[in-house]
Amino acid sequence: MSNILIVHAHPEPKSLTSALKDLAVDTLTAQGHTVRVSDLYQSGWKAVADRGDFIEQGRPDRLSYVAESRHAFASGTQSPDIDAEQRKLLWADAVLLSFPMWWFGMPAILKGWVDRVFAYGFAYGVGVHGGERWGDRYGEGVLSGRRAMLTVTIGGREPHYGARGVNGRLDDLLWPIQHGVLFYPGLEVVPPFAVYQSDRLADTEWPAVADAYKRRIAGLFNDRPIAFRTQNGGHYDGQQVLKPGLGASESGTRIHLVQPGDPEEVLDGPVPDRIALGAR
């Protein structure tokens, strides 16, 4: 059995988002997994990244958050709440981020969790940097070997988030989180579970949503992850630009997904057994 961390960001315990979090806890526990929840609102998580994140500063005269993050992580002088969340991530075999979509992204408190917990030396700034190698990121890193999934409640209608929808494709809106936050330090990301018109969900509709979510939870370790290209897998040149001939059948962020027609000579072995973003 596995260890699961749920990072939950909703201020109302009786919300649909919180109900899905509780359902995830019950479902995963019933399967024999060990579950821990970081409930950011309930714990009063400090969302602002500032001097208070460091027990001692390397340069107290002027704050460079990146430099101080590097110093604090290396010297063991991070704020205790940051250290505790990093330990949870290292303990986990899978991470679920549970949140409502607010203004096309995650709530500020969850962004603040990322800003503070994903420290230099922990989630970025790791690995060899030199020549054509830009460190261990995008498929490599400290959190490699773990899985992640977003559980997102959305007030808008599903067609608004389709390929031609007025709000933009959901896959693109979630790209900074799924590719930039989760895949960057090595997590394998399975497609998100999204509930649309979440503020108008009738009681009679809940059983169908709950059943669908249970099925997704059951497949957390078996569903194929999103087919993000790895940084150091031969797809990019020395400037980290996608090589010619790759991604020609797609546009926008989707060029950075492995395509079935990609020349195999640039890949490390056969095309990964992954599904494209949003193909479900």
TrEMBL record:
Lineage top rank: taxon: Bacteria
InterPro entries per record: Flavodoxin_fold, Flavoprotein-like_sf, NAD(P)H_dehydrogenase_qn
Keyword entries, A-Z: Oxidoreductase
Pfam families per UniProt: Flavodoxin_2
Record-annotated Flavodoxin-like fold domain positions: 3-213
SUPFAM superfamilies with a match to the protein in the record: Flavoproteins
Family stated for the protein in its record: Belongs to the NAD(P)H dehydrogenase (quinone) family.
Protein name: NAD(P)H-dependent oxidoreductase
Organism: Sinorhizobium numidicum
